[in-house]
Amino acid sequence: LGPQNTGDGPLLRRVRLHQSWYRAEVLRLPRWGVTKGRSPRQLGSVLTDADAAAGLNFTSPAAVDLFNTRHAAGWGIDPRCRSYMTSSQALTLNLFGLLSQSETWLLECLNTWLGRSDLNHIEALELEFAPARRSLHLNDQTRIDALIVVTGDCGAEVVAVEVKYADRFNSRHVDISTPSYHQLARRSGLWSEPSQVLTDRRVNQLARIHALATSHGLALDIDVPASLLVLAHELDTVASTVVDEYMTCVTGPLVRRTSLRSACASIIAAAPSHQRAMAWNLQLRYGAESESASYAASIAASLPTTGSPRRRSPAMSKAKAISSG
Description:
The chain is of the alpha/beta class. The chain is built from 13 helices and 7 strands. The radius of gyration is 20 Å and the shape is globular.
């Protein structure tokens, strides 16, 4: 599986091990790569430069195309998402690259994740969204992982999607107790107690994302506040706690969270027949960590620093078929 990081917390340790397993057993790549930056280190969850350049961190041709298109469009895509298998941005590209192939497929998944049934048309989908003129919105550097303009029974509305895999949930704090945010709060009625929300560090990231999505909706003459959907790992207790706390600050049922396991299950259930293999591949990559559980148990006491002989798991016949299909 390659080297692991003994300093990882429980969530990142589990995610890194699973991605190392996916690289070795599903992609059948015997070599691993090196992290970028001042202190490079070998990790089993990093692809070699050659494998990254070949697009092997993406689970479908559609995700490769989406990465290339969005990367060419300018700032917003971290080039490391081509090689870091634990990247939340790579997960976002893999998920929406696949779903963007069918409006019906994406709508069915959105309805499921949001607890809705009325969404019926996708008007726009943008990844790593930021307004062209920040001064006309909230005047900060906030980006939204995926911003969707969708039509339902009550007309057009905006859905902001925040995707978390293993990175820290609130890694950056921005002062948002500013005139722009207070004006948005008054105009939209998004929060029940704006002054509390705009000074609470724990919900800072969610408040910024939700506010930008709502501001974008207002610029499109959409008067209803945006919905916010958070997709996160089921072991990410920090994310679940923060999302639940933020829910209590918002006026109305506008915030939902769904585990990656449940999200992948929804994608498989709604997949068109010709996309079923790609949907299973996504599930194996992000939703089926049970397939690497035996490896996690076997190295619980001592994480390896070099590659070790590979042992075929019960799902390997299916995994090999998917990776080659």
